[in-house]
């Protein structure tokens, strides 16, 4: 049994799984049920001056039969009186001392920031999270992502908070910026103890083509919202990786985390803990059981005694493109024992890659008609041997000399494990693009005359 | 008129439940999304009418239902009935790569029904809007079953005038009179006939028997003739009299005649081992006949009826008696008392007491009419000989398709013949 507990800015959490500030953390009752289900911490639905919400508020992106792979919302911060939230927060802290309660805050003026920080500290909040991320509604009032996108404003407000903060302060970053490291470093400069990222991505999830109104529909119009859920995970991981390279303090990872594997990936890329929202809105608090169990087994498998050992393990391996080894090369292998003959790999390679997967038994004329440009002499006639394969079924064949090792066929193959990428190095030694630039061997034949001239070379 | 008014209330088929009801939108999209959209898909290879199945299913998944129906109808104008009557288990779905994967295949028939039904509900003029300008050419189709309807529909879309000559009062052929009701109700088959008739300039003449003299007139009055007359009456193997009926005749009654009942039948014997035999046995048991047995002269392993249909029939109580060949009927006075059979696996005879004997051992060929056209040839089994790619007979103006050509196959095979013949007929006009 690995130790799942984490230390986040000196605050102990029984596990790295926190609920993000969102509808699942709207009330004390909800948070108590979440803690009972196993969540280690909860970031309270952002407190401030209560707002008024619209109806409807959520829109979703479905893909195939998968519902809600992306969710967007135009809901604002809490619509409940501050008094009520504070009373409930005190009650939660009293009854769940092992769990972490983070107060998410969003107000406007210095006086307001001072007042609200005092009030949440008085009821026992373990940490503060400054909501500089919300990209809809509040930003039109100069708060939320309007702050996160302006490093100077961000630094000023963090400064106000640090004047009165007695507990660690997390700055929640918006992804709606050109370079995420800029606001992260601004927060660091202002003395923040941690950052959390990403908040939601500015979005419109779709358009009602009958009413000609974007989703979610509010009467006869809509507004851009904040996008989250599994669809934004790659964007979040990238920004996390970038921040992890420059930000020396703890990071709370957010963005499409739905299960233990997602959480492990965020932690490997530099997050000390993670926050979850959409998956809970979809399936409920109960999903945390799988997250705890799965992470535990994973850590045991990898021989890691503590979840903290996982934090940042993949960060050094996230590099610039120019630092990648160009002599590394893989080619696709198709397993005749499990190929079902759907030929999705063939069509994907033909139209979307390098035309190197062949169907046995075709002459060169037919191959040309289908789009092949290179005609290998002997395409082996490999019989499909999957349990239900029809007699005479043939397995597509990869022309290795032409395979660029792009992975596309493996990605489209519906049968897990049927296509594998086999390592076939171009040379034993490593060579990166940056090294080629340094050595002056970066000019690839077939380029522009102007480039060669600039390098002091004759035209080709 | 397509004959919808020829379906009085109280027919036995109305008591049956559909085996595969129409999908709801959500069901269809979910199932469509299960399809992995194979390239060079084996389901297409297995479809006798060459429907681009992965494409029509993909279009369901994107909610392009009318496009999906266009993809289906482009190859098979009877896509709606084929969706329900095709033995997909041995055709498209039987070839689905999911079988290789050890998973249930895609419900291709049900998706096809969803696409065709939904699209035509949304837009009844989906196809007719795109029909070509009138050419002035006239084609006569003899018979108004699946082969003729498929041919007539395409010919009408190509701008020609078509007249269908049907000897029954109801058009639609076996789709209306012969398909097991739990697969396709007569009213739905007639709705499809309405759809075909509305595609263009098609006139339907029912209750018209084409005799030799009429056949000769058709050759002079029309620019081309399509023969889609199906098969003749059931073979009865010489067993005659009260209590002995032919299978297709009985199914037709069950679908059209409100006076038919099986209230007095306790034991019914179905003689035969083909799909018609399995179907009528299954129907009788579903209609409440307590004891239904198939009497087959060979063994299950060589039966021509589909294994999946026999499994379904057995689930409802049908029993198969192997190795018994019918000899004659035993009577108690005038009343049927039993069927005397010859044992094929041992010496001796066996009498099966029964109240009804249904003969499902094949149908005769309608050789006379085809032979009335000069140059049209029949093979030694009485089937009309045609060129495979064009369905043209030995007479360059005469085409044929469906059961009268292949001896009795599926609706989809008839639809394919009708399509090929229509294309060849239109091409022949173009060449002139």
Description:
Chain A has about 450 residues and is of the alpha/beta class. Chain A folds into two domains: about 5-315, Aldolase class I (TIM Barrel), CATH 3.20.20; about 320-425, Alpha-Beta Plaits (2-Layer Sandwich), CATH 3.30.70. Chain A has helices at about 30-35, 80-95, 110-120, 145-150, 150-165, 180-190, 235-245, 260-270, 280-285, 290-300, 345-350, 365-370, 410, 435-440, 450-455, and strands at about 5-10, 10-15, 15-20, 40-45, 60-65, 65-75, 100-105, 125-130, 170, 195, 200-205, 205-210, 215, 225-230, 250-255, 275, 330-335, 355-360, 395-400, 420-425. In chain A, helix 1 (about 30-35) links the parallel strand 3 and strand 4. Chain A is globular. The N and C termini of chain A lie far apart (about 65 Å). Chain B is globular, with a radius of gyration of 22 Å. Chain B contains 18 helices and 13 strands. Chain B has three domains: about 20-120, Fumarate Reductase Iron-sulfur Protein, Chain B, domain 2 (Orthogonal Bundle); about 130-230 and about 365-430, FAD/NAD(P)-binding domain (3-Layer(bba) Sandwich), CATH 3.50.50.60; about 245-360, 3-Layer(bba) Sandwich (FAD/NAD(P)-binding domain). Chain B has helices spanning about 25-35, 40-45, 55-60, 65-75, 80-85, 90-95, 95-100, 110-120, 145-155, 175, 185-195, 210-220, 245-255, 275-285, 305-315, 365-370, 405, 410-430, and strands spanning about 140, 160-165, 200-205, 225, 245, 265-270, 290-295, 320, 325-330, 335-345, 350-355, 355-360, 400. In chain B, helix 1 (about 25-35) crosses helix 3, helix 4 (about 65-75) packs across helix 8 (about 110-120) and helix 5 (about 80-85) runs antiparallel to helix 8 (about 110-120). Chain B has about 425 residues and is α/β, with parallel strands linked by helices. The interface of A and B includes residues 340, 344, 386 and 415 of A.
